[in-house]
Amino acid sequence: MRALLCRRPKKITVLVFLVLFLVWLFITIIEFSFGLTVTTDDLISPMKIVKARELKAFITSAYYYPTSKSLGNNALALVLSINLVKPPTSQLFSPDPTELVIMAKNETSSVQVSTPFLRYISFMSKVKNQKNDRVTPHEVCQIITVFATAQLLPNVKSIHMVGNNGMSEIPFTIPSYSKRDVVVCTSPLFVSEQWQNFLFAVHVYRRFGAHMNLYLISAVTSFYELMKEYEREGYLKIQPWVKVDFPGVSRTIADPHNQIEFRNQAASQTDCLLQFKESARFITFLDLDDVLIPKLAPTYAEEFQKLMEGKNKLAYIFYHKENYDAITTRNSSKFSLKKMFSSLECKHKRETGKIVVDPRNLNYTWIHFPPILPNGLEKYEVTENVITHLKTIIWSDKQDPSSRILIEPPYFDNSSAKIISSRGIMDIEDDLRKMIRKPRIRKIFPDLPSTHYYTDLVVKCYNDRYYRYHYSGRIGEIKCPGPQLCGFHQHPKIKCTHVDATHKPMKTLHPITYYYATNPRFTGDIGCYSH
Ligand SMILES: *[C@@H]1O[C@H](CO)[C@@H](O)[C@H](O)[C@H]1NC(C)=O
Ligand SMILES: *[C@@H]1O[C@H](CO)[C@@H](O)[C@H](O)[C@H]1NC(C)=O
Ligand SMILES: *[C@@H]1O[C@H](CO)[C@@H](O)[C@H](O)[C@H]1NC(C)=O
Ligand SMILES: *[C@@H]1O[C@H](CO)[C@@H](O)[C@H](O)[C@H]1NC(C)=O
């Protein structure tokens, strides 16, 4: 070994001199023949490219709209998560791409378009003619959600993202065009055990005329099976929410475990907005425990219409959340929505609310509301109604099974107003009974969890690692609440169904390499994890 090591440098030195000589000869020849002078700049810039930080973009959504009232015809809308924010320790030069380049083909022709890429839009700035927009309005996380749109060709067959050294074909889907009044986009559930909360929400949405589009990462298996049955019966659509991943890329370059806000929730909400952009009259973005119940009209659509009409063009309306405690039974054989409604107790504590939009007037949104108000549009803060936020759901074994009492839960304002009528509650209870009688659901019911385990771990972890800083004003100490902020000790008896997908390594493109997942599916083989 030693001997070899000693002899090698001599050979290498000779080789290096030879290469340098050849380069010198080559440059001299070029100078001679074309009269060019090679400046130091020309020699340095290739070095810069070598040292630049690599940009990695994960495509969470790619929708192609043959027609669109707001994006134009033959439009592509993309949602990407890109490592745009430089880690504080990085010495590397940050490339600053100003556009995305897209190539599309149909059967007869092809087109290449570039769409401007605005990197540093601050939270409040209004940039004219912006097409590629940042969805995440802060830089606590290094991987940022970005929206992009461009018009392509009629009848597109293939779409490629183009780099300086090649391109990658990307999959796309045509969004739904079937008409719906209201879509509720439920933020991604993870390690969820909250089957009572689910039944409460899904029956309320059904009663007042909304379609539920629920994003799912993981849930306790029996609860997952219950949701699948409700999906079969047409109550909701379960949408797998796959993780962002860059196979083969070092975490020092792009870290999807720790550097994406929550579980890429802003991207899931924008995905839902884009998916129903041409089909829904109204879309709302709610967590499972945020239950909106119309108060001004018998249905959601009529309430939203009432709130929006007669006003200037609105990007969104914003409902506040009022916290409630609910008591429910841990024993599924005794479950009743009537009892859950009757137990609601207002805590007189308000939290940051959620929005309802006319999808023609918004292209993307962040977790609570969009980071900027599109030009010329306004927002309306709803004072006429609030979201019932099931802040604490107590799983009790004391609930009296024989109690026939029905209490109309109070509206938060201490007036005599109620959040729902007894008639509404009875309709919802009847609908629940009808579902529980179905043999497939009756079979699942006894297996639903009677204790919560992961719920407690999630609450504790988020309080310790995130909200503690958030609510005490120690904002400077906040670290990115990444998808893997909380690791969970697996419980030997509690099994989860978890999303999975196929992620492929990609050939590096400059300045941005594009990634995507295919074949999303649910599996019992992963365990109970937050993404
Ligand atoms: C392909 O795009 C071209 C250019 O817009 C258009 O004229 C042509 O009709 C398209 N072909 C098909 C098959 O739609
Ligand atoms: C649930 O309630 C039923 C009916 O009262 C009872 O037979 C069953 O043992 C209870 N299950 C649990 C887990 O407590
Ligand atoms: C959405 O994008 C389209 C296409 O770029 C643009 O014309 C429209 O103004 C955007 N809408 C909003 C509300 O920003
Ligand atoms: C209603 O009453 C509770 C206490 O009884 C109080 O904390 C709360 O501020 C009141 N809310 C309103 C809107 O008056």
Automatic annotation (TrEMBL):
GO molecular function: glycosyltransferase activity
Entry keywords, A to Z: Glycosyltransferase, Membrane, Transferase, Transmembrane, Transmembrane helix
TM stretches of this protein: 12-36
Membrane-topology annotation of the record: Single-pass membrane protein
Localisation per UniProt entry: Membrane
GO cellular component, one term: membrane
Signal peptide per UniProt: none
One Pfam match: Glyco_transf_92
Family listed: Belongs to the glycosyltransferase 92 family.
Protein name per its UniProtKB record: Glycosyltransferase family 92 protein
